Amino acid sequence: MRQRKVKNEQVRLASLEYLQVQNSSEIRSRWSEFLKEKNSAFKGDIYLEAGCGRGHFLAALAAEHPENFYLGAEGRSSVVLRGLELVRDKALDNVLYIPEFILDIETFFADSELAGIYLNFSDPWPKARHAKRRLTHRDYLKGYKKVLVPGGFIEFKTDSLALFDFTLDECRAAGLAIEECTEDLHRSGLPARLVTTQYEDRFRLLGKPIRYCRIRIPAKSDSELPY
Ligand SMILES: C[S@@+](CC[C@H](N)C(=O)[O-])C[C@H]1O[C@@H](n2cnc3c(N)ncnc32)[C@H](O)[C@@H]1O
User: For residues 177 and 174, what is the distance between their CA atoms, to the nearest angstrom?
Assistant: First the structure.
């Protein structure tokens, strides 16, 4: 996708450097320590939204849970800038952006560093030959499972039925349990309907149902899995 030109983008990004983690692979395996240095009040868990866009969802969660830390990975710089400006304007001290595309999550995080991963309206990559680029392809799921704590979760929302079906199939192939699942989140009583993303709001206005599932990472005692 072509990036949108934003006035003074580089200067504005540089002025918000303090909200970005540029060298995330160097922080791998010591995220907790690093985030405590950033915010001494941080005592909770670390969550990641991969493909967080302009960060509305992360900002809402972060405001509700000041004890946790929320990381947003986003590869498009013009979108990162909007997200950083939102975090600055809301004066949140528990959100940081990783301004990169996540390709191999294990280069960013070591085993069990994250409590949860959010995948909201991930690019659907509709062509079969691009299936490996979908963020719920089994190769990605395998990485998420490693970097999540035992008993952690992945929450996934999409408007795309094809991507939703693909995701459920990939979870089955990876031996991951689906804890919650609905083809119409906003007609369900599930708590995930309460904090929405920017894309979710847009699709709801168009009357499109939001598909959602919550994938549970097995606790240590769970039976052997394919990965
Ligand atoms: C359709 S938007 C959804 C944004 C937001 N999650 C929402 O629901 O409003 C998908 C975003 O994911 C970003 N993205 C796609 N693949 C990514 C990856 N591998 N790592 C980080 N960001 C990614 C895109 O640049 C785009 O901004």
Answer: 9
